[in-house]
């Protein structure tokens, strides 16, 4: 019982805002694991390659290190972190992966403006021309000089949007108001809060200042007292309702974006490419006007530099309404087939940035079972690229890769194969030390094959 309590306490420390405390707790957990005092699952093929951390927002409060421990403890084959607008957690995450012997990848997500689709909604509901977009396969937090102002601009844009939301919602929730610096920034370990942090700050302020919560929220959210009473016993649902009613499209805190609200695809891709990472198209569910024209959209994005795609599978099949489920499963099948045809590896995950998101996808479900090998191949591809870029400077975007792989398919196959062969942790790092930039791909594969 004492050991169980100790493990639970250490796991809580993994989410402390102090990096030293996180690292110390992780080290202790790994030591307990070696002593056989932690139940570690092994051998399953679960992956989650799209997990947000508390550097943007994680519904479970997970830090980058905590995500690595989650993957190790549950025996996941691979795990990938992705944060909004920042790369703050990349070094911590990849270092924890090395120490904990977990296969990992790291990325960034933001919203961009696509002028060619300015009259068509893409994957950001109600916002024509605006698209959630990603970069994956980053090898570290530090960026090159040309990329520094781009990353700074993403952060500044986020701050501006947050302050505009607070200004609007403060006028609605009076007498309750919050201050960005005092009430919101402390909720984020690196002062990079999201809209979800703002929601949490408002809820805490209301609980502190208002006696009759039911009456207050009933008036402000325009819901019945009975509906509010139900929400007050479910923190996750309350947060989702506050965000939906006050900050999303149609709410008083919503600010309709303009073409200048978000960076262009080209600007974002410049950041990604400067870091040797992979521009990644984020597909929603195929129901928007823009995604209905998916052939045109993907062709455009490939021309702009996209080399991989992202899917959140659970939102495309785990749907109560049978008609909607059938439609979205059909769209999912068609998109996966198209990505395969275009040689675009697929990155999948659950996000974990909203209450109710699963910790890992259910690849045993009939809707996803047939795609498990494709999803695994996509994960191995990004992992292989990450390991080669981080340790050798020979990632997918490197000059070495451009010389040795005439086609996207050849490059995809190589990085997928090396990803399958490189073990996580010290064992894999020792093998990579045997390689050098003068080797041809065939020689590298022979060496890796000989170490399996």
What does this structure look like?
This protein has 452 residues and is α/β, with parallel strands linked by helices. It folds into three domains: 1-37, no CATH class; 40-143 and 275-432, Alpha-Beta Barrel (TIM Barrel); 152-246, no CATH class. Helices cover 50% and strands 9% of the residues. It is built from 19 helices and seven strands. The chain has helices at residues 2-13, 19-34, 64-74, 90-100, 148-173, 180-184, 195-209, 213-221, 225-232, 235-246, 265-274, 289-292, 294-303, 322-341, 372-392, 399-404, 408-421, 426-432, 441-450; strands spanning 47-51, 78-84, 104-113, 130-136, 278-283, 308-311, 346-348. It has a seven-stranded mixed β-sheet with strand order 1-2-3-4-5-6-7. Helix 3 (64-74) packs parallel to helix 4, helix 7 crosses helix 10 and helix 15 (372-392) crosses helix 17. The longest helix has 26 residues, at 148-173. The radius of gyration is 22 Å and the shape is globular. The relative contact order is 0.12. The mean pLDDT is 95.
């Amino acid at each position: 019982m004492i050991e169980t309590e100790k493990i639970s306490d250490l796991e809580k420390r993994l989410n402390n805002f102090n990096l030293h405390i996180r690292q110390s707790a992780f080290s202790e957990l790994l030591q307990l694991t070696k002593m056989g005092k932690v139940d570690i699952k092994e051998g399953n093929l679960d992956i989650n390659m799209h997990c947000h951390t508390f550097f943007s927002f994680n519904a479970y409060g997970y830090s980058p290190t905590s995500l690595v421990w989650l993957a190790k403890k549950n025996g996941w084959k691979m795990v990938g972190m992705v944060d909004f607008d920042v790369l703050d957690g990349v070094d911590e995450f990849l270092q924890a992966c090395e120490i904990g012997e977990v296969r990992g990848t790291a990325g960034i997500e933001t919203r961009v403006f696509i002028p060619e689709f300015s009259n068509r909604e893409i994957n950001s509901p109600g916002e024509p021309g605006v698209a959630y977009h990603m970069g994956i396969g980053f090898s570290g937090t530090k960026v090159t000089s040309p990329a520094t102002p781009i990353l700074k601009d993403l952060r500044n844009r986020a701050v501006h949007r947050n302050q505009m939301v607070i200004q609007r919602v403060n006028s609605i929730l009076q007498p309750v108001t919050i201050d960005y610096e005092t009430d919101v920034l402390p909720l984020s370990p690196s002062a990079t809060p999201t809209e979800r942090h703002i929601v949490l700050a408002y809820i805490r302020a209301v609980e502190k200042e208002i006696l009759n919560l039911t009456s207050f929220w009933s008036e402000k959210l325009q819901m019945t007292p009975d509906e509010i009473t139900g929400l007050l016993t479910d923190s996750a649902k309350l947060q989702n309702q506050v965000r939906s009613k006050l900050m999303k499209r149609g709410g008083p805190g919503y600010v309709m974006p303009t073409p200048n609200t978000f960076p262009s695809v080209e600007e974002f891709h410049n950041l990604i490419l400067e870091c040797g990472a992979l521009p990644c198209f984020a597909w929603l569910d195929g129901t928007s006007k823009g995604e209905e024209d998916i052939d045109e959209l993907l062709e455009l994005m490939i021309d702009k530099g996209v080399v991989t795609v992202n899917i959140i599978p659970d939102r495309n099949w785990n749907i109560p309404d049978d008609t909607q489920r059938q439609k979205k499963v059909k769209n999912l099948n068609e998109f996966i087939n198209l990505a395969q045809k275009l040689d675009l590896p697929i990155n999948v995950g659950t996000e974990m940035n909203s209450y109710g998101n699963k910790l890992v996808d259910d690849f045993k479900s009939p809707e996803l079972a047939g795609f498990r090998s494709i999803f695994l191949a996509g994960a191995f591809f990004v992992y292989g690229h990450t390991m080669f870029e981080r340790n050798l400077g020979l990632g997918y975007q490197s000059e070495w890769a451009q010389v040795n792989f005439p086609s996207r398919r050849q490059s995809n196959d190589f990085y997928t194969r090396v990803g399958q062969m490189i073990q996580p942790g010290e064992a894999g790092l020792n093998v990579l030390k045997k390689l050098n930039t003068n080797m041809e791909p065939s020689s590298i594969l022979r060496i890796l094959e000989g170490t399996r």
